[in-house]
Write a structure and sequence with these properties.
alpha/beta; 8-stranded mixed β-sheet; 19 helices; 8 strands; 13% strand
Length: 440
Amino acid sequence: MRVYWRRGQTAVAAVLAGILVSTTACGGDDGGNDDNGKAAASGPVELTVDTFGEFGYEELYKQYEASHPNIKIKQRNVSQLDQYIPRMQQWMATGSGAGDVVALEEGILPTYMQQRSKFVNLFDFGATSLEQNFLPWKWKLGLSADGKQLVGLGTDIGPMGMCYRKDLFAKADLPTARDEVSKLWPDWAAFLETGKKFQSKVPKTKFLDGPTAIWRTTVAQEGGKGAGHTYFDTSDKLVFDSNPGVKAAFDTTLKFQTEGLTANMRIFTPEWQTALKRDTFATLPCPAWMLGGIEEFSGDFGKGKWDVATVPGGSGTWGGSWLAVPKQSKHQKEAAELAKFLTSPEGQLAAYKSKNTFPSSPKAQQDPAVSGKTSPYFGEAPIGKIFSEMAAQVKPIYLGPKNEAVREDVEDVLLGVGQNKIKADQAWPKAVEAAEKAAR
């Protein structure tokens, strides 16, 4: 499962005044709702917001409450997505228990797009005019296929980069400056050759952490370049074995396994976290949100050693969420207003300043706090510029409801190759078999 790491930096009060003015102007009544979400007698309204990881909303909640004295916000947060998913499943299945505003991560969004009757149509609550606040592909993914229901408003995104260890590159007599490093790998074939050169000079360190991050990255890239979907087509038919983009991504990932260029680690595991404090591997495909994780787990050991270059193959994205309002909420109007506030350009900017949640709003991305952002930990890398450029190139990809189950089981096959449990020439048939089983 995807884990979010977002590290705080500064207070966000300075950017909030504009949001509060605009929200108050369009917010309508702050009274309670009856079971149908219609305005009821005025009185205190408590809105529960369900999130996972860190969304950077704590100061935003305080500011919203200050400008809406009739609203109290209760945050229910769990640290990891795999703790959050079963709770969401139970709430939606039973029709009770969910918050007034819930976060839907990209991997579970397709499941709830199929259950969109359980969520309010945000178009009914004034969201029609908000499209320009989001990147086109982010907005589109929150819409029903017919464009008539807006299920979710976009929060953060995960544009891709390539994190690398400058000190280990120096040992391998490779360039260390990020612009020169980016030139080493315009595509994955060039990245593979760079890996071979690296390990010939630094044989005790693997070039990549493992197959999982590169698999997720290349699948997203190929899907965007080709059919616009990956494991499932838009009718939710499994097309894993017939989608040429999936096969191309698998073949690319498999090459790194068969050449022995990865440490064969599953991303996010304890051993992977420990490896970040050692010289175990030198590169890691990294969405914007992962930089916080590298900093957290690599700590003082990695400070000044890591940098960020562009990812081979151009654009790509991994991760990101939307805010939705379940129909079971008794305060649908107020919940929708809060979701609009949190996902506004100003709200996204404040969240980014708080927890480095990279905004899906072009307006927020253009703010100097984002576009001019550099990372002291990553050698003052211009991370705002790098990730904004990647985000602008991303094309929407359809993910089926069982996308996560297929992905995880195929990753097991790739890891099995690295463990010498699966022969390379049997990897693709095994992957197809695993995908078919997971998709049932």
